[in-house]
Design a protein that fits this description.
This protein folds into two domains: 1-75, no CATH class; 78-275, Rossmann fold. It has a seven-stranded mixed sheet, sandwiched between helices. Strands 6-8-7 form a three-stranded mixed sheet. Strand 4, helix 5 (125-134) and strand 5 form a beta-alpha-beta unit. Helix content is 29%, strand content 24%. The chain has helices spanning 7-13, 17-34, 62-73, 101-109, 125-134, 193-200, 216-220, 243-252, and strands spanning 45-50, 53-58, 91-95, 114-118, 141-143, 146-147, 153-158, 184-191, 205-210, 230-237, 256-260, 270-275. It is α/β, with parallel strands linked by helices. It is globular.
């Protein structure tokens, strides 16, 4: 769930003065964006040192990227249930890998876990690869396709200022700042869960994270065989109306909802944790 950048926390984890100065600049920029003022962050790739890691991100999307980093490394998003904290050599699929923060957090908790990442956005995909590589995780396989109910070419909408928003998620809720000129589109290849299953080629999946910006219902409804061999799934819903649909589908696969981040439904997106 969205957060104001926590400067006290970032002050603690910043590994260089340039990183700290940049984050304070981003925090000020966040206030500007919330006031519908233009961003002052230069549009280039920045290299940051945080939590003992090197992180690359785009200046144009720095605010949104740091919010996601904070959600995962400070608020423990996707890790709020013990069964979803990796142990030893677990097999994990990350659908909607973004800049790789979840994969990095997994490896910090369990250096030997086996991770397969899928990210649709071709603009940020090279940064996902670089963030994993520079931190010593070249073995993590990454695929640049959109998780979908088909492997056909599909239209993909994205917002350069917010790489965590894409696909159907662009239109899932109204956002005052998201004017039509901010939304871009391109054609990308889809990939189904059955195809991901073949590529990862594991007898069982310990954890699957699904954060695919509003395509959750379409993908889950395909009833892929991989669900029969998956133990735990965390799904980020992208609208309140999707909640019960996701629960019903997961129940059909033998999963029970064991925890949800926002049971009062006060936010349009939140994690839902399912286990068998």
């Amino acid at each position: 769930m969205a957060n104001i950048i926590n400067l006290d926390w970032f002050d603690e984890i910043s590994g260089s003065k340039s990183t700290l100065d940049f984050i304070h600049q981003v925090a000020e920029d966040q206030r500007r964006i919330q006031s519908n003022l233009p961003s002052l962050i230069e549009k280039k790739i920045y290299e940051l040192k945080m939590s003992g890691m090197t992180i690359f991100l785009e200046g144009i999307s720095a605010t949104a990227s740091l919010e996601v980093f904070q959600e995962i490394f400070l608020n423990n998003n996707h890790f709020l249930v013990d069964a979803f904290v990796p142990k030893s050599t677990e097999k994990i699929i990350d659908l909607g890998a973004n800049l790789g923060f979840y994969a990095l957090a997994l490896r910090k908790r369990s250096p030997s876990c086996n991770i397969f990442c899928v990210e649709a956005n071709p603009i940020i995909f090279p940064l996902l690869q670089e963030n994993l590589k520079i931190n010593g995780y070249k073995d993590i396989k990454c695929v640049n396709k959109a998780v979908a109910s088909t492997s056909d070419t599909i239209d993909f909408s994205y917002v350069p200022e917010a790489p965590s928003i894409g696909g159907k998620g662009v239109y899932s809720v109204p956002r005052k700042w998201m004017t039509p000129d901010r939304i871009h589109s391109l054609k990308i290849s889809g990939i189904t869960l059955d195809q991901i299953d073949q590529l990862f080629n594991q007898s069982c999946i310990d954890i699957m994270k699904i954060d695919i910006e509003g395509a959750e219902i379409d993908v889950l409804s395909k009833k892929a065989d991989i669900f029969n061999r998956t133990n735990n799934i965390v799904v980020e819903r992208h609208s309140v109306s999707d909640r019960n649909k996701i629960i019903n589908i997961m129940n059909e696969f033998g999963f029970s909802l064991i925890y949800e981040e926002d049971p009062e439904l006060t936010c349009y997106y939140a994690d839902m944790y399912f286990s068998k």
